């Protein structure tokens, strides 16, 4: 997929504390023929955006992870909207592993251009970016992620506080699973291999172990 010629060469910033998620999103963006930079936190994003604006090379689009330590994506987006040293405010898409009503409401209230649900597909990202760059300055229709629908999570209260171990060699899969479970008030540890999982199980007790097959 290639963006229309009028959009080629635009600057895109990916903000995500997960290295694999950054690599995946930036790889997709670069594959569209756009210039892409990455940072791992909100403060880094604010600093880079200000520097780029001062150099008259502003970013036109920011892909922002919602759940980041310290300053979450919604707070960063709000600060970008209020930043007095940015000559041009970029379009922003919030990226999250879990879509719930208050996030959708905050995204709309901040005037962001949409929301993408992880794991993000190439086609979903392409469509959301295309719409965001064409609705710059407007609260466009929210991109609801997979199959055009948004997902809410109904969790029995008895699951709150459970100790869960997630075992998966794919870092993005671990992040998605961890976000879902933590939002349900479960205590989550992760391991990247069977060997690491056995080591953790020897040290502490878990109520549930979620194991990747391969």
**Helicity level:** 25-40%
Mean pLDDT: 82
Figure out the total of helices: 7
Q: Please compute the radius of gyration using only Cα atoms.
A: 18 Å
What form results from the Cα inertia axes? elongated
| N-to-C CA distance | 30 Å
- What strand line-up does the widest sheet have? 2-1-3-4-5
Strand content: 15-25%
* Computed structural class: alpha/beta
Low-confidence stretches: 137-153
Along the chain, the helix and strand elements come as EHEHEHEHEHEHEHE
Described by strand count, sense and barrel closure, the largest sheet is: 5 strands, parallel
Number of E strands: 8
Polypeptide structure, described:
- With 214 residues, this protein is an alpha/beta fold.
- It is built from 7 helices and 8 strands.
- The strands form 2 sheets. Strands 2-1-3-4-5 form a 5-stranded parallel beta sheet, sandwiched between helices.
- Helix 2 (42-54) packs parallel to helix 3.
- The model is unreliable at 137-153 (pLDDT under 50).
């Amino acid at each position: 997929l290639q963006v229309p010629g009028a959009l080629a060469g635009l600057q895109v910033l990916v903000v995500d504390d997960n290295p694999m998620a950054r690599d995946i999103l930036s790889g997709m963006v670069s594959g569209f023929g756009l210039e892409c930079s990455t940072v791992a936190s909100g403060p880094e994003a604010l600093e880079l955006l200000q520097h780029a604006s001062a150099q008259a090379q502003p970013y036109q689009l920011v892909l922002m992870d919602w759940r980041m330590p310290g300053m979450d994506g919604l707070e960063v987006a709000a600060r970008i909207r209020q930043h007095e040293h940015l000559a041009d405010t970029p379009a922003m898409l919030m990226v999250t592993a879990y879509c719930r009503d208050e996030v959708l409401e905050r995204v709309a209230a901040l005037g962001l251009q949409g929301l993408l649900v992880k794991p993000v597909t190439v086609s979903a990202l392409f469509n959301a970016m295309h719409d965001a760059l064409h609705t710059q300055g407007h609260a466009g229709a929210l991109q609801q992620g997979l199959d055009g629908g948004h997902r809410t999570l109904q969790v029995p209260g008895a699951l709150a506080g459970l100790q869960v171990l997630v075992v998966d060699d794919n870092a993005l899969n671990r992040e998605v699973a961890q976000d879902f479970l933590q939002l349900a008030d479960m205590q989550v540890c992760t391991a990247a291999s069977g060997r690491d999982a056995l080591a953790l199980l020897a040290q502490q007790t878990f109520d549930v172990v979620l194991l990747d097959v391969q």
